[in-house]
Amino acid sequence: MKILILGGDGYLGWPTAMAFSKKGHEVMVVDNYLRRNLCRDLDVEPLFPVPNLLERVRLWREVTGHEIHTRIGDCCNYQFLMEVFRECRPDAIIHYAEQPSAPYSMLNHGAAELTLMNNLRGTFNIVWAMREQAPDCHLVKLGTMGEYGTPNIDIEEGWIEMEHKGRRDRFLFPRQAGSLYHTTKIQDTDLLWFYVRMWGLRVSDLMQGPVYGLSVNDEADLDQRLLPFFNYDELFGTVLNRFVVQAVAGYPLTVYGKGGQTRGYLNLRDTVACVELAVDNPADHGELRVFNQITETFTVNELADKVFRVGKERGHAVEIKSIENPRKEKEEHYYNPVYTGLKDLGLTPNYLTDEVLQGMFEIVEKHKDRIVRNRIFRGVKW
Fold first, then answer.
1. Which residues belong to the active site?
2. pLDDT at site 224
3. Element (H, E) at 20
4. Which among 13, 172, 198, 223 is most buried, taking Cβ atoms within 10 Å?
5. CA-CA distance, 79 to 97, in Å (whole number)?
6. How large is the average pLDDT for residues 57-73?
């Protein structure tokens, strides 16, 4: 197929591009380097340097013989996006092209405005470009489990059947965001659902939990410069990745408040596998299909305990420290999401085992001297 990956330079986008390219698809990636520029400007750059997208593509071609086409530009620029669609004529679009950080979206007015305008305008433009240039293609959109919040009922897979005054209907599951970033994701879903109904588009919305890990297949063995970004800072680093770096650095693991916050997590390998399954099994015309893209749930305390134990085994002086929670969130709550749809399509999860953590520690330890301690926690509050 012709696969168009928007946000193809990112933590998820680049591994996805390699995976589809490796399987023989014709892949085009688009990115405007927003994440790179924000990390540079805020002094929260990743653990090890990552070549620019053009260099990555060149390295990929050298080590695999596969070609990935690249366009540097902004999805908020409708004319640019239309040119990309006319050139690519995609069968499937994978949409990662958003500001991806909840803490960044709460940093200040400028960060909030950027998040709001970038995320919503980009999705809006993509929908219109689909209608004009590729109305039969399938859009796979990365949502977030954070759209649901932490309701005191089971979280269904996107949709819920409701009965009211003797009548029944099916609705999108009620959502309650915990940050402006998550609010834009809710608005994305509403926007997509509107245009699916109006224009008969085909959309799969993947409600993804926090991702951890570095390697997807064997790219580190081919050339370590092909690895994705690995942020460990408070703004762009995901919690388990941050904990591993903190353990290696001898920095107390930053557990927010009581540490009972429960979320659904998945390995980076499973992110790519889930996207592949969604592409290989497209939604129907006029269907907004929703998958909860997680493989297991943990409290923050459970993650900290796992990192503590494996870190100790590797000789690190690991300490867990509960700090005042900088976020407005429930620290103890009910959390029971349904996540069977992707397994029904064939997902075989990579669970968070000690072996997986050992592999993460090994890579971080190689770059121990690059850890900048003041990047780890700065106390962004909301």
1. 144, 181, 185
2. 86
3. helix 13-22
4. 13
5. 16
6. 96
